[in-house]
Amino acid sequence: MTTSSVLAGADLLELSELDQKNTQNPASIVGVGTAVTANSYSQRELLDIFRITDPKIRSVFLNSAIERRFLTLPPQDAEGTCLPEIQGELLAKHKRLALDMGARAVRECLDNAGIELSDIDYLCCVTTTGFLTPGLSALLIRDMGIDPGCHRVDVVGMGCNAGLNALNATAAWSVAHPGQVAVMVCAEACSAAYVIDSTMRTAVVNSLFGDGAAAVALVADTPDAAGPPEPRVDMAATSSGARLLSFASHLITDAIDAMRYDWDDEQGKFSFYLDPHVPYVVGANAEQVIDRLLSGAGLRRRDIDHWLVHSGGKKVIDAVRVNLGLTRHDVRHTTEVLRDYGNLSSGSFLFSYERLLREGVAKPGEYGVLMTMGPGSTIETALIQW
Fold it and tell me: What is the CATH number of the domain that holds 329?
């Protein structure tokens, strides 16, 4: 065999693999569900509960564009002072809240899609606000009665961007197993990651985050059928059907320490840190990752009908909006979620996605962009189409 024939054979093999890849149908979001904890508080109520009088710290709370957040506050003494919680107590709180919210979000997601618990073939769980071994996926499978043979994975410690990192992996599994049901759930008990003191560092964090969980169910069509086989999912009966076309990410290595967990020796617990320059760093890097995401599909920003951005904070949203040339209407769901829930970490963008579905304005053929930001510093994006 000649060299040219070997090369030709290699080219044909590469083309064959490419053709095979192109015959695979993308995963579709067939259901979404969200859940929060029992109690919500206005920012002014929290200032009173935490007995914060410093004008600068009060200003951080009151100028956050947040009206209410769902939180599970520490126990209080007879005088109403919040008692300190040691790290072990916070881990126990995380386990309790993440399991409860995660299970409720999954059930709502399945009900939304007309899927039974017994239909779940793959479960991906995301959390950063606590550490569990065995992971959240194993505990949910046991507590919810999901098939013990279900494939599972836990994404731990990646932060607010992790929902899209996990969605990428979940979508890939779904495409590789057409017709089977994959579920991703983000469960963030931010109440279990709080440090309460009088410093500006903790004030920024304590003014921002709330408790919440969100879940999505994915199914990829079989290559030779218009929809997945029964009895898995009736795609026509679901509330979404948005297809996950592609993903793009960008790690801002110069800002790798801008969002991080540190160990606080004085408090004896982990403490989250947010650099005040984060919004501007994220905003300055937003264009390149979005343009890379869109150029791969031959699209431009003006072709995108719906923008669902992580509710990372007022300054972060504004920086992204300005740098991408978006209108306030474009990010209305993002700002509404921030207003009503605060920053819900990894699941925030799915709360915005759910609001878009309820609005009922997305039409077949329209494109959307999902965008999250978090520690690393990292920007994650996904292109979807109805």
Answer: 3.40.47.10
What residues contact residue 37 under an 8 Å CB cut-off, 6+ apart? 70, 71, 72, 97, 100, 101, 189, 191, 211, 212
Report yes or no on 232 lying in a domain: yes
Q: Give yes or no: residues 223 and 105 share one domain.
A: yes
Say yes or no: 332 and 371 in one domain: yes
Same domain, 226 and 247: no
* Catalytic residue annotation: 160
Residues 156 and 206 both lie in one domain: yes
The distance in angstroms from the start CA to the end CA of the chain is 49
- Give the mean model confidence (pLDDT) for residues 89-105: 97
CA nearest 27: which of 211, 218, 177?
Answer: 218
State which residues form the domain around 314. Answer: 242-385
Q: How is residue 77 written in tokens? A: 């003494």
Tell me, what's the pLDDT at 22? 44
Would you say residue 95 has pLDDT above 70? yes
Say if CB 69 and CB 210 are below 8 A apart. Answer: yes
- Cβ atoms of 221 and 178 within 8 Å: the answer is yes
State what percent of residues in the chain have pLDDT above 70.
Answer: 90
Please give the pLDDT value at position 233: 52
Name the region of 145 (left: φ>0; alpha: ψ -120 to 50; beta: rest). Answer: left
Is 347 found in the same domain as 315?
A: yes
Residue where a domain stops, chosen among 237, 264, 294: 237
Task: Decide if pLDDT at 12 tops 50.
Answer: no
Does any domain span residue 6? Answer: no
pLDDT in tens, 133-145: 999 999 999 999 9
Residues 6+ apart with CB under 8 A from 91: 130, 131, 192
The reported pLDDT for the residue numbered 236 is: 41
